[in-house]
Amino acid sequence: MDFKKWSHLVIDGNSVCYTLYRKHCSWLLGGEYHEFANLVKKFFKEAAFKNPIVVFDGEAKKFSTSWDRRVTTLKGMQKVQVEGGWSLTGVERESPFPVMFIGVFMDVLRSLKIEICVVDGEGDNKAAALANEHKCPVLASDSDYFMFELEYGFIHFERYRYEKINNSLFELSVFMKEFKLKTYEQCLLIPTAFGNDIIERSESSKPEDFKLLLANIAEYDSHQQFLDKACHATITREKFERAK
Predict the structure, then answer these.
(1) 3-26 per-position pLDDT tens digit
(2) Most CB contacts within 10 A, which of 5, 30, 91, 234?
């Protein structure tokens, strides 16, 4: 993949910031802010893309999401205490993050004169809109972007490479063609079972059920037919409205 063909790249600032810190820094030593700042500088200076626009969530983020993440942080800290203070066993996914690490990330961006956009609440919709406006992909660690109508695709940060090649570009149109989905709204039925940042995952859903669900949805010409004929649960209809 040659990033030069795009004049810009839109980046989900929160998810990329969290992923960079989680993969390369330790929160046990009080933050490692200097090391993190150098890491961010290195990432952007060595990157193959041009003119990044970094989008951040604002303060008015969903209360339930903010609350859940704070609870997760407390659980992670509790595990460290129980397991001996310095043990990291089993807490990687629940690791707390230092208070000012996003501020450090943004300070580095400003020093590099990289464009920053902070929105009220969730930044996903703004990031998607900017990507379509600038005719470029979104780079993020947030799997919600798989379901956005991104004209130029989505690059998952977990599979991002610094080089110009070997980066996986996800395009929703290719996904729909592969699984014979006929409308964009049919894609929005997926979070009703498997969840996203807004919708809780169904307790009965399993990874192996994913393709079965897609095959079932593809049997119908629209999401409404699926809801009317194959799924009569009120909760599913409510989740679909939230997914929209």
Answers:
(1) 778 999 999 999 999 999 988 887
(2) 91
User: How far is the C-alpha of 186 from the C-alpha of 223, rounded, in Å?
Assistant: 5
Whole-model pTM: value is: 0.68
Helix spans in the chain (H): 13-24, 33-46, 63-82, 101-111, 124-134, 172-178, 184-187, 190-194, 210-218, 223-229, 234-243
Cα 194 from Cα 192, distance rounded (Å): 6
Structure tokens at 173: 């149109």
Distance, in Å, from the CA atom of 171 to the CA atom of 64, rounded to the nearest integer, reads 30
Q: Coil, strand, or helix at residue 9?
A: strand
Helix (H, G, I), strand (E, B) or coil at 55: strand
Tens of pLDDT, residue by residue over 69-121, are 667 666 666 665 665 554 444 444 445 688 889 999 999 999 999 999 999 88
Say how many Å lie between the first and final Cα of the chain, rounded. 31
Domain boundary assignment for the chain: 3-170, 176-243
Which residues lie closer than 8 Å to 109 by C-beta, 6 or more apart?
13, 40, 44, 54, 116
Length of the chain: 244
* Sheet containing 169-170, strands listed edge to edge, beginning at the edge strand earlier in sequence: 115-118, 52-56, 9-12, 138-140, 154-156, 169-170
What is the domain class of 3-170 according to CATH? alpha beta
